[in-house]
Amino acid sequence: MLHSIGSELNIDPDTILATSHGRRSIDVLKGYDPKNANWEYVAKIEGMIPQRYGQDAKEIPGSRRILSALEEAGAPWAIVTSGTRPLVDGWLERLGLARPEQMVTAEEVENGKPDPACYSLGRARLGLSADIPILVIEDSPAGIKSGKAAGCNVLGLTTTHPAKDVQEAGADWVVQDLQSVTFEGWDSKTRRMTLQINAG
User: For 126, phi and psi rounded to 5 degrees?
Assistant: First the structure.
């Protein structure tokens, strides 16, 4: 998909990729192709990605196990993403992953990551007060900075960026993937969950 867009804009796809991960497509396009920096175009393009490239998707190890445990326990969780709703819906359907009750997508906030607005909105939708700790799981420096700015703890994954970049962005813990995380329980009275993170 990046190669197609890169050809249209006469820009090296690697240049787009280097500046886009973890950021909203509409924000990236503002710098390369302002006339197409609108939600109609972005949603159309992103909605095609799971259809065209779904066979190339690689599930983050441990993610399905964690999501299943959260669902079984009735623990609150949300997707907070720089992707549009068509992109998220397409990937969830393609991969057959659990779908949260709450979701914040790119179209719903005025400013994208690293601005904290998306995670602040996610907290509000989950009905969690400011005194309740939230764990954000992120794989991009922009997302890590967003989570930290929103007052969350951040678990950084090295699935898309080197550990050095993840650490420098401010992640509280750094792991290779979600195989290093174990869900231990959810207390509905205190609204707190317990996780074990093996970041060694």
Answer: -80, -10
pTM, 2 dp? 0.85
- Alpha-carbon distance of 10 to 7, in angstroms, equals 5
Q: Please give the full DSSP string across 131-180, using - where no structure is assigned.
A: TS--EEEESSHHHHHHHHHTT-EEEEE-SSS-HHHHHHTT-SEEESSGGG
Task: Name residues whose C-beta falls within 8 Å of residue 3's C-beta, 6 or more positions apart in sequence.
Answer: 13
Kindly report, residue by residue over 77-123, the tens digit of the pLDDT: 999 999 999 999 999 999 999 999 999 999 999 999 999 999 999 99
Token pair, residue 24, equals: 């909203």
**CB atoms closer than 10 angstroms to residue 22:** 21
C-alpha to C-alpha distance for 163 and 157, rounded to whole angstroms: 8
* pLDDT > 70? residue 178: yes
How large is the angle between the packed helices 141-149 and 117-126, nearest 10 degrees? 60
Residue 73: Cβ-neighbour burial (10 angstroms; 0-12, 13-18, 19+): middle
Please check the confidence at residue 5 and state whether its pLDDT lies above 70: no
Residue of 101, 111, 102, 93 whose CA lies nearest to 50: 93
